[in-house]
């Protein structure tokens, strides 16, 4: 598809809003759900939080190839279907903010995941469909998603959880006096996300038109996409991505609680977690250069290895708070090198008529299988390593187990992955 005029700015705005919708609520969700009701939270157990943020999220990823991928690849324009999903998702998120029971949160989270998770793959595939040089241009477009996450994570606490903002030396740098009911107000982050979602839906009608491929040889797009598993490189990438997505999911489940444990205020958790996104911007900016110099194998290995290093540092819980907080910059290396590199690789080995479905099949693992296993492992580790009567687990053991998984995955990928796009180029 020939690149349309001014397409990069429009795709950049799309990515900004795509991740602002997510970044508005996810960084503080675990803290709100885990806080006791006397503090204004929901008082959910680690197992219940793991089910809501793990199992529920996975349902949407599992059905994505059969709903979003198939529909967008074969029946409706991607941008219009994207708008429909965002409108429904916003309504579900707003209603969830008004609920307090575990059952309501679980079922509403499952419904939300069905309509939101496919949008992640659809926004990627829409961008790939309109960019002439994916390796060079996609990182520059995708970095606006990171900026969107940062903006949403900062704006919500600044306008709703704090007053009298001022600068300080330690991250998150810009802080203020917390309002009296800060923990209870964390629920409003879901309403903030809903408003962004509805605005994003309106913007979808300004995106480049991306019609379905009705004349494709294979009528079932997701079936052809699953055929990519015959590629050794895709299979190895899937295995490594499943392991990494498990420890990546636990990051969102445990990090807000960990930061609260080491002394950060509730209003600071979201902004501090965006340090990872700030570093992600810098890594994304050089990702195209890295892929040309190191190849997919080298870049994705660095991303997996960064998970090992970050969790290794966090295991030393007696380190100064500033060191633990600043090590958060490794999150940018983790995500940009591993996941962005993997998304680009999947696009490279997929044919044009199954591009959406290939991205959603890959999403089954990182947004489906990973959250399920991550939620289960999070609950199990919480049970095993939380001393009787303690409010928090043994964080050192917790993080070092995740660090070990990262190291094993990085070594596995380095040993068994072969870049098939380079083989084709050589041929």
What does this structure look like?
This protein has 427 residues and is an all-alpha fold. The chain has one domain: MFS general substrate transporter like domains (Growth Hormone, Chain: A), CATH 1.20.1250. Helices cover 74% and strands 3% of the residues. It has helices at 7-23, 26-34, 46-63, 68-74, 78-96, 102-130, 134-161, 182-185, 188-203, 221-226, 232-261, 266-273, 275-285, 287-314, 321-326, 330-349, 355-385, 395-416, 420-426; strands at 162-167, 174-178. The chain has a two-stranded antiparallel sheet. It starts with 6 loop residues before the first helix and ends with a helix.
Give the structure's gist in a few sentences.
The protein is an all-alpha fold. It has helices at 7-23, 26-34, 46-63, 68-74, 78-96, 102-130, 134-161, 182-185, 188-203, 221-226, 232-261, 266-273, 275-285, 287-314, 321-326, 330-349, 355-385, 395-416, 420-426; strands at 162-167, 174-178.
